[in-house]
């Protein structure tokens, strides 16, 4: 039985890259826990520190209640599967699955039975005497997983095991992996950058950004009530509308959210209005998922936004429409980030010398040309309001539409991108 505690864990690589910052997590025994975040946020580094493949710079790692910072990988009773789970090419599926048991000196007859049983569970029964090179990518990943699981590790670590597979196979395998690891009862830490994979598989998710945990919780909670603008945006597909507003307290109405030329009012009886009072006269960010907006008859009684349809996209079971609403929007990545240090910026820009000239040629940039300024820096864009519609209804481009807003599902963040008040559902 193994739970995992990360107590203020940090990692600085030689050369000074701060890959993981003060991570505090408790992963319960038997939990399927997902580390989710964009490329470079430190997911793999964290996983490798749990596995013992990377030294921990600061803080403590506890496995099953014991400090494990200095424990060698083999003493941790962990098994790990990578993106391309390596198999012994000259051994059959049976040989690959059998190998860890042979090394451990298990009884050959019992080991043989276990291999057959696991191959059956993994849908590999018919392939048991085949060599890896004769298998598909998905089948090979299944064998790699089986090989990691066969010794019943206390802790099972997976680093993007599905990322090299095509979309159909990924969908199929994520269901299988989730039920397989749950059936073994092993505590599992699963790394991915794919929010759908995380949401569908996890008991709980930690969203990482720049080496730090932004939010941690069950998938439904993270989706319904994200702690930051970044988490709201990262977990949204289609993307959440992030609207720039100013909050005003209006005596007989509630907290009015001024969205460019439009308004929404959070009435005083809504508990979130009280939390918004502290932001009177200040900028706030309003997150509106496309399905929070529904096409409504003009001039209806409820809260609504208006816009002119610019484009519509067919998505099979629904339409996604884009409307010009004149409301300023914000970029989720601009929030909660410390300003980039000068040294880091210099390291990220092109090198000098002949190689630089060659690179600039290849990239089409002139030698004296300055780095382009980040898009929309210091100002807010006016982009489209995205809303979804059932497949039967299709507004025409150019049409003026009224969009009823489900106020209960608005996401409210302060000027630093942090949740102002919890969402009611
Ligand atoms: N061996 C290393 N030496 C120096 N820096 C490293 C090393 N390994 C990773 N890094 C840096 O640490 C940061 C985190 O990397 P890590 O691989 O953990 O991120 P990740 O979230 O797993 O990314 P990806 O999804 O792209 O694999 C990155 O900035 C990366 O460049």
TrEMBL record:
GO cellular component: ATP-binding cassette (ABC) transporter complex, substrate-binding subunit-containing
This protein's name: Multiple sugar transport system ATP-binding protein
InterPro entries linked to this entry: AAA+_ATPase (IPR003593), ABC_transporter-like_ATP-bd (IPR003439), ABC_transporter-like_CS (IPR017871), ABC_transpr_MalK/UgpC-like (IPR047641), Mo/tungstate-bd_C_term_dom (IPR008995), P-loop_NTPase (IPR027417)
GO MF terms, alphabetically ordered: ABC-type transporter activity; ATP binding; ATP hydrolysis activity
Pfam families reported for this sequence: ABC_tran
Native source species: Actinomadura namibiensis
Gene3D superfamilies linked to this entry: 2.40.50.100, P-loop containing nucleotide triphosphate hydrolases (3.40.50.300)
Keyword rRNA-binding: no
Keywords: ATP-binding, Nucleotide-binding, Sugar transport, Transport
PANTHER family listed in its UniProt record: MALTODEXTRIN IMPORT ATP-BINDING PROTEIN MSMX, OSMOPROTECTIVE COMPOUNDS UPTAKE ATP-BINDING PROTEIN GGTA
ABC transporter domain boundaries: 4-235
């Amino acid at each position: 039985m193994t739970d995992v505690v990360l107590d203020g864990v940090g990692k600085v690589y030689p050369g000074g890259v701060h890959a993981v910052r003060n991570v505090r997590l408790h992963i319960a025994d038997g939990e399927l826990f997902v580390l989710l975040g964009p490329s470079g946020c430190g997911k793999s580094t964290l996983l490798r520190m749990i596995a013992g493949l990377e030294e921990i710079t600061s803080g403590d790692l506890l496995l099953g209640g014991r400090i494990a910072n200095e424990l060698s990988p083999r003493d941790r009773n962990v098994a790990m599967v990578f993106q391309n789970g390596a198999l012994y090419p000259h051994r059959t599926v049976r040989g690959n699955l059998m190998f860890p048991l042979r090394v451990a000196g298990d009884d050959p007859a019992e080991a043989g039975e276990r291999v057959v049983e696991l191959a059956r569970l993994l849908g590999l029964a018919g392939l048991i005497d085949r060599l890896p090179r004769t298998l598909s990518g998905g089948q090979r990943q299944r064998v790699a997983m089986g090989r990691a699981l066969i010794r019943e590790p206390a802790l099972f670590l997976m680093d993007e095991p599905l990322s090299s597979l095509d979309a159909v196979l990924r969908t199929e395998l994520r269901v299988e992996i989730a039920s397989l690891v749950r059936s073994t009862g092993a505590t599992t830490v699963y790394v991915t950058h794919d929010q759908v994979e995380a949401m569908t598989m996890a008991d709980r998710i930690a969203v990482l950004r720049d080496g730090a945990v932004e939010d941690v919780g069950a998938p439904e909670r993270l989706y319904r009530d994200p702690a930051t603008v970044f988490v709201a945006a990262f977990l949204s597909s289609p993307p959440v509308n992030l609207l720039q507003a100013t909050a005003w307290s209006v005596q007989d109405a509630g907290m009015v959210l001024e969205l460019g030329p439009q308004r929404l009012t959070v009435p005083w009886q809504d508990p979130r209005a009280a939390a918004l009072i502290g932001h009177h006269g200040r900028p706030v960010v309003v997150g509106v998922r496309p399905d929070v907006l529904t096409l409504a008859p003009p001039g209806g009684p409820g809260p609504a936004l208006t816009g002119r349809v610019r484009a519509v996209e067919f998505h099979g079971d629904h339409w996604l429409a884009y409307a010009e609403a004149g409301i300023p929007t914000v970029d989720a990545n601009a929030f909660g980030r410390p300003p980039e240090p000068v040294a880091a910026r210099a390291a990220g820009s092109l090198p000098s010398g002949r190689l630089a000239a060659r690179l600039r040629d290849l990239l089409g940039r002139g030698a004296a040309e300055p780095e382009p300024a980040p898009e929309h820096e210091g100002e807010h864009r006016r982009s489209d309001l995205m809303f979804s519609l059932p497949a039967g209804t299709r507004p025409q481009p150019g049409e003026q539409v009224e969009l009823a807003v489900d106020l209960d599902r608005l996401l409210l963040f302060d000027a630093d991108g942090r949740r102002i008040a919890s969402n009611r559902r």
